[in-house]
Amino acid sequence: MSDKHFQTGMFRVDELESKRCTAGKSETLFILGARLRAARKQLGYDRKDIAARCGTSPDELGRFEHALGDINFSTLKQLCELFKLNMLQLLSDCMDVPRETVQSIVNISDAWTGKPLKVEDVLNFAHSDGW
Questions:
Q1: CB 75 within 8 Å of CB 55
Q2: Series of mean pLDDT values for 10-residue runs along the chain (131 residues)
Q3: What is residue 120's predicted lDDT score, i.e. its pLDDT?
Q4: Dist. CA 51–CA 46, nearest whole Å
């Protein structure tokens, strides 16, 4: 499928799953993106407007919603605020880890001073040994 097809929302579910696997994104990222997409649509928000408010592109947000790409963890925080979602609960549910673990990881990400953390980085950290 071309980017044009993606932008117009013409993927079938089986095509999305195939593309997610090809992109190497996790099932957790797939669930998280789907939940955010559902919340955005339920609230009647346009992807273009939400992307602009979060400092990302509509294409990047769309790829994240379908687990074809990743976004900065800070953008995820902004999305949760805009959608009035409890980020700790959302991540805990999607990652199937205790909420306290998610809180610890969020605290670490808040103190992070290196390159911007992507959501997949945080998900992988949560599932690494010791958590």
A1: yes
A2: 41 60 70 92 95 94 90 93 94 86 86 84 69 51
A3: 85
A4: 9
Residue 82 has a pLDDT of 95
| pLDDT value of residue 11 | 52
- At position 40, the amino acid (one-letter code) is R
Which ranges of the chain would DSSP assign to H, the alpha helix? Answer: 3-7, 13-23, 27-42, 47-54, 58-65, 73-83, 87-95, 99-111, 119-126
Angle in degrees, 0-180, between the axes of helices 87-95 and 119-126, rounded to the nearest 10: 60
Report the pLDDT value the prediction gives residue 5, as an integer from 0 to 100: 41
Encoded tokens for 94: 């999607």
* Domains parsed from the chain with CATH numbers: 3-126 (1.10.260.40)
Q: Which tokens go with 125? A: 């950290």
Tally of CB atoms within 10 A around 8: 9
User: How far is the C-alpha of 106 from the C-alpha of 43, rounded, in Å?
Assistant: 26
Both structure tokens of 80: 């949760």
Number of Cα atoms under 13 Å in the Cβ half of residue 19: 19
